[in-house]
Amino acid sequence: MAIIELRDIDKIYKMGNIEVRALNRVSLDISEHDFLCIMGASGSGKSTLMNIIGCLDRPSAGSYHLGGKDVSGLADEQLAAVRNKQIGFVFQTFNLLPRISARKNVELPLIYSGYSAKERRRMADIALDRVELSDRAGHKPNELSGGQRQRVAIARALVNSPSIIFADEPTGNLDSRTGLNIMALFQKLHEEGATIVMVTHEMDIALHGKRIIHLRDGQIHGDEAVKKPANAAAAIRNLADLNKQDLEEAMSLHSNVHKSQESVE
Amino acid sequence: MKITEGLRESISVMGGNKIRAVLTILGINFGVGCLIAISVIGLAFRDSVGSEVGRYGSTLLWVQVDGNSYLKGESRILMDGRDIKFFKQALPGLQSSGTLFSETYTAAYMGESKEAQVLGVGPGHFEMFDSKIEKGRTFIEQDISLRKRVCVIRPDIAARLFKDEDPLGKVIRLSERNYTVIGVTERANNMLLSDGSDNNTIFIPDSLVGAKIWGGNFVKYWIYLFKFDSIENVEIAEERINSYLEKKYGLLRDLPRFRVQRLDSFVGMIDRILNIITTLVTVIAAISIVVGGLGIMNIMLVAVTERTREIGIRMAVGATKTDIVVQFIIEAIVLCLIGGATGVFFGAVLAAVVCSILEWKFMLSFVIVAGALGISTFIGLVFGIYPAWKASRLMPVEALRSDA
Ligand SMILES: Nc1ncnc2c1ncn2[C@@H]1O[C@H](COP(=O)(O)OP(=O)(O)O)[C@@H](O)[C@H]1O
Ligand SMILES: [Mg+2]
């Protein structure tokens, strides 16, 4: 049974008297326990589509059923509740609150579901444990590496046990090895039963999913099943199997990339 | 979102930008401080007037030559002993009466000398102005009628002239005449209504000063004070004195030669002046609170712009528009309340200092504090609503796109 049913979704951005048609009659079904990757060139409408199915934005036309319920007609307050309880969203730029600790960031959705402070802390610790970041719970985002930040963001997406996790280019700001780690995490969550929808423009990232759709100019231009998804955890093990010298080289490369990234931020 | 979460959140936000928070709350702080100070000082002032009026019973009345009626150099008609005699029998409920003459002389005793204010008073004077005697006695009727050369002195002049000696029975020299000290008063307290004496004053019988100033035996008075048992009798006295003096001395170019003044109307006048001052300060305080509120609104609008992305993140994880509105309103209210609370503190300190200098009773009532904090909350609410609404107006995706 399809947990997401999109029918003839249009999204038109108006800028003055110029209209940009970012989505053009998109129809799509996503079934429960799927791992769908949305691919396409920059500007093809991936983020626009993702924001609409993630209930962060409203379509200009078309209907959207989430878990059998029509959400295109929901009021803002009800839509907020859907985002709070049914959806977990992971962003390319992490979108953590800089002032507060990792744990407090993970607790954020729970504040809006009315959990007590004690309960929130317990649930946040479980979520941080699932992303293997328990030892960094008290750190603020700027005390964490990019990969660790993305793990915090994933823990925040998981913490309220949503039925679907959306991720818009979650590895886009990470180096490839860290990206691989994040993909391994998503695959683990998928094995544990999560439904995942992910946007990426990189084929080797997309190949970790079970199904790939291609977007071009706001329209779906291909929908294929991945016969044998790449196994991120195995790939990491293979990397670790490199002889020691190669490994050190890889590591120093990794930390260089990492440093330059941090200085950019 | 629960209020406690909102409070915790706003305190963490303010902690991150203390200087801005301090600058923002200054307007509210100043306004509330003014309000508190003026209300406490006003209350203390009224209390002190009230307690003095209580002491004098506000049934004090005095008659004096009205200098405004006379032209420059024109000789003035004064009251004489027969007038006083008439008043004493014609005015019902009269408790005590007396007059005041004041001059500055050099007082000397055994080589010590000091400039001193000499006040000629009647026997009822010390009771009328509530001056207590510490040693010896006050004047009795005979001292006045027999024009005895006796005096009652204040403690500072006593200490100056007599050092450790007992002043009672000693003779001091005043303007080439000798006066025997019969009493020493307690220290004069700093009262709003006084006979004009200080702690260096020497009191002598008014009959002596009168004779000295106006010459001869026939004493004349330019001011005379009466104290009555009730306000009704003050009213009767005012009327009778006026008509008596007008009948006897006539008008001067249609103006009365004497003026009758009542302490209770004097108090009413002080009250009116205080009301004007209170209104002025309140207006200033209100303006500065409103300007402070606008400052809060401005800073909240800046905060909303700066934190658009945060708003987007919160919405993306499930915050409703109401949650966002509540969060920002709480933040505005917390800012105003901190401004208000510190304003209460500074205003109370200012009022306490003023009260202690003027020896007034400092009273800070719960109602005043609660009122000030209530006003602060209200201002936070009023000026926080628009920025908060602005914060909640965007779709999450629009808020997230902000690169602030
Ligand atoms: N807020 C916006 N206002 C106007 N045009 C927009 C807005 N967001 C996206 N677009 C346009 O819509 C198209 C799709 O954008 P987007 O969904 O971000 O693409 P992708 O994520 O695939 O790079 C692009 O042409 C982009 O310029
Ligand atoms: Mg995009």
From TrEMBL, chain B:
Please report the record's description of how this protein sits within the membrane.
Multi-pass membrane protein
- Keyword presence, Transmembrane helix: yes
| Gene Ontology terms: cellular component | plasma membrane
Q: Give the transmembrane region(s).
A: 21-45, 280-304, 324-350, 362-386
- Annotated Pfam families: FtsX (PF02687), MacB_PCD (PF12704)
Which residues are in the ABC3 transporter permease C-terminal domain?
Answer: 283-394
Q: Where in the cell is it found?
A: Cell membrane
Start and end residues of each MacB-like periplasmic core domain: 22-242
Which InterPro entries is this protein grouped with?
A: ABC3_permease_C, MacB_PCD, Macrolide_Exporter_MacB
Q: Does the keyword Transport apply?
A: no
The GO terms describing molecular function are: transmembrane transporter activity
- The protein's superkingdom reads Bacteria
Write the record's keywords in alphabetical order, separated by commas: Cell membrane, Membrane, Transmembrane, Transmembrane helix
Q: Please give the family membership noted in the entry.
A: Belongs to the ABC-4 integral membrane protein family.
* Name by which UniProt lists this protein: ABC transporter permease
Source organism: Candidatus Thalassospirochaeta sargassi
